[in-house]
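Below is a filled-in request sheet from our internal design queue. Each sheet records the structural input a requester submitted and the sequence that came back. We keep these sheets so that new team members can see what a complete request looks like end to end.

REQUESTER: design group, bay 2
PRIORITY: normal
MODE: inverse folding
CHAIN LENGTH: 430
BACKBONE (tokenized):
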């Protein structure tokens, strides 16, 4: 019996796509006869006690601390051999690579994973390999950002080097916005530099796929929908097949980049823009895409077990890859107007739809909604599968059109933060 170690594998109820991903992994791994060891923080395991029953073993180890994970894994492997190690979170991929290397198991080289995890290093590596990339620079001060704008023009995008979920990503159209952008991106002073890059114009896509035998195989091209005026993802549709066949160009560029970077294992999620000159690669991830993309890809390929493919490849087994996707899926997120929720109408109709892959609404009258600045600010999800991508997208839109989340701004509302002024008064007292 093989033993598979999952770093950061416990996701409590309410954790959305992360919990579903973890549960699918446990189900698909155990169906293949493997023994599953799940590690996560003590807090996560306490919040999800059911993993003590779902997995064969659970251990408290911080998946964001690669050195701690390696030390623990080496000690554990002295008592019980480990045959494969994996993880599905953005902040676990470095630890996964380090543990695999320390134990001599299949996995990506740690230095390559650190490169793709750090946005500016990934940009530079892709540029050196001959891929189209926007101009990029690390900036530690307002003057640095202003200098970048003087050299490359605007608009530009300011973002943290290694965050996720659109957190801290800001568009800057001119030097007068540089100071605020630096603060929002969390840079300057002792916080270190932020990444500043040229703004790329064009629709956004991502390529979802899995490695088998060291080769990346694309399973679907996904179209991304952004909330107006933000970098926050409001939804996705997959698979996308463009009328002029340029989805194949996108797939080719993504898989070519993965090979050129030297990556060889895991589920991947590669983002890009489609410009008049061709695809421009964005972020490269050696883990599944978030936002229910893992479930949407499985829906598009009936019978596909995405996590099972990962399991088999890591253990050196033959991987059963599907053909072209034959169904479609769409997800949209609930993004109400900022304010205090006074009423919610129509959710019962949404939740009762028989084509749902997942639906949840973490909102009730009396709750406060802020303008979404990252994926963590989204308050609901509607993910649906259908016979085609167009049908799925149309049905999700129809369901959302029938949902009414009524909000009202209250006296003293702070226009810069979308938070009531009394919140700041309470903070001042603490």
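RETURNED SEQUENCE:
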């Amino acid at each position: 019996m093989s033993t598979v170690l999952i770093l950061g594998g416990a996701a409590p109820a309410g954790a959305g796509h992360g919990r579903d991903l973890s549960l699918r992994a446990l189900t698909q791994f155990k169906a293949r006869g493997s023994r599953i060891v799940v590690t996560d923080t003590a807090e996560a395991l306490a919040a999800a006690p059911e993993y003590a029953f779902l997995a064969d073993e659970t251990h408290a180890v911080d998946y964001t601390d690669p050195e701690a994970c390696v030390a623990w894994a080496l000690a554990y492997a002295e008592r019980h051999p480990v045959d494969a190690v994996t993880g599905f979170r953005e902040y676990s991929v470095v630890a996964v690579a380090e543990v695999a290397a320390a134990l001599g198991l299949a996995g990506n080289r740690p230095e390559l994973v650190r490169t793709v995890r750090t946005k500016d290093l990934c940009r530079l590596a892709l540029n050196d390999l001959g891929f189209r990339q926007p101009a990029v620079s690390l900036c530690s001060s307002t003057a640095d950002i202003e200098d970048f704008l003087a050299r490359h023009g605007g608009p530009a995008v300011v973002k943290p080097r290694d965050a996720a979920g659109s957190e801290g990503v800001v568009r800057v159209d001119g030097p007068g916005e540089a100071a605020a952008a630096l603060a929002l991106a969390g840079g300057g002073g002792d916080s270190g530099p932020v990444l500043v890059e040229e703004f790329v114009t064009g629709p956004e896509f991502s390529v979802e796929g899995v490695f088998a035998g060291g080769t990346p195989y694309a399973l679907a091209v996904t179209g991304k929908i952004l909330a107006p005026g933000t970098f926050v993802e409001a939804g996705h549709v997959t698979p996308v097949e463009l009328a002029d066949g340029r989805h194949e160009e996108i797939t080719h560029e993504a898989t070519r980049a993965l090979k050129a970077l030297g990556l060889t294992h895991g589920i991947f999620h590669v983002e890009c823009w489609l410009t008049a000159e061709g695809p421009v690669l964005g972020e490269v991830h050696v883990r599944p895409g978030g936002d229910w993309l893992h479930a949407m890809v499985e829906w598009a390929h009936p019978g596909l077990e995405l996590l099972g493919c990962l399991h088999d490849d890591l253990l050196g087994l033959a991987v059963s890859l599907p053909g072209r996707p034959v169904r479609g899926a769409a997800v949209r997120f609930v993004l109400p107007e900022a304010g205090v929720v006074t009423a919610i109408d129509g959710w019962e109709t949404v939740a009762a739809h028989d084509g749902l892959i997942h639906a949840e609404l973490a909102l009730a009258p009396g709750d406060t909604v802020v303008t979404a600045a990252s994926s963590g600010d989204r308050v609901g999800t509607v993910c649906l599968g259908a016979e085609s991508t167009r049908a799925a997208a149309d049905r999700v839109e129809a369901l959302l059109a029938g949902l009414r989340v009524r909000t009202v701004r209250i006296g003293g509302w702070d226009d810069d933060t979308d938070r009531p002024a009394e919140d700041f008064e309470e903070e001042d007292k603490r």
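SHEET NOTES:
- Residues 7 and 419 are 36 Å apart (CA to CA).
- The chain has 15 helices and 21 strands.
FILED BY: M.R.
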